[in-house]
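haha ok so turns out i had the wrong file open the whole time. this is the CORRECT one, sorry everyone. sequence first:
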Amino acid sequence: MSVAHVSCRARVEADPAAPPRWSAPVIGGAEVRPPYLLTTAVFDGSGRMGPLFGEAHTHTDALLVWPHTGSMTLHTPTGLRRLVPGQGLWVPPDTPHTSTADPSGVGCYTYVARSAVPAEWTALRVLKVGRALQEMLLHLDATPMPDDLRLRTQRVILEMLQDDPLPVLEVPMPADWRIQALADDVLRDPDSDRSLEEWAARHALSVRTVTRVFSSDIGMSFTRWRSLVRMSAATALLAQGQPVNLVAHRCGYATTSAFSAAFRRVTGASPTEYLRERSVPAAPAADSADGSADGP
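then structure:
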């Protein structure tokens, strides 16, 4: 078979607090064995979920990152993107990245042979990975079949790949090394109500320095960036089936209505609408919990 089903215990673990070394990523070889066109690794959450590799790495082949259940997060030099079921992120060959997956979910990595990559797909792009496509990929993983049938199925899958009109929520990361530790701290603690002044003091930085770097590196204020961090964390919790009121509390909001309004400002949809558009089942209590989502 051309597909590997892997427990996360097979991963190379690392210090989760250590930032990726983007300047010197580990260079990986091809994952797809000829004559196959693609192969999928499935991580089932049977152990502690952490980065697939302990540091930034690349692949000779292209990579499609997609969650079957739960959420996944892809880190690149420019930022992080959180994925929920129905979403996939295309990573071109030789692109430095790291990734993490929800320990309660199933995360999937479909490698595409470099020879099969569309010529124009040279940058990160969001792809639709609907249930039909997911089931085809998982069927290849679980089912022995003759090579000619497997290759025909793989060709059909590649033809089915298409852009997703709905964007994946991206959290840009500052390039300035002085601010990276602060940004990582906020990512680990999205429900914190610390002010900008408190975050700056915690990292022995001036408010002026933090404000200037956020403006120059990522083109937005710290407050706007922290809202993106909170909404990114919220999508992962919602994909786990957490009720909206609990997600609101865990993302730093005192009320569900305030959270739902903020979520709509960032994503253009209420929490349940966001998941419904991506074919993710909402928690049973969610519909009533975010009834105030039409706020400003």
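The two ends are 52 Å apart (CA to CA).
again sry for the mixup
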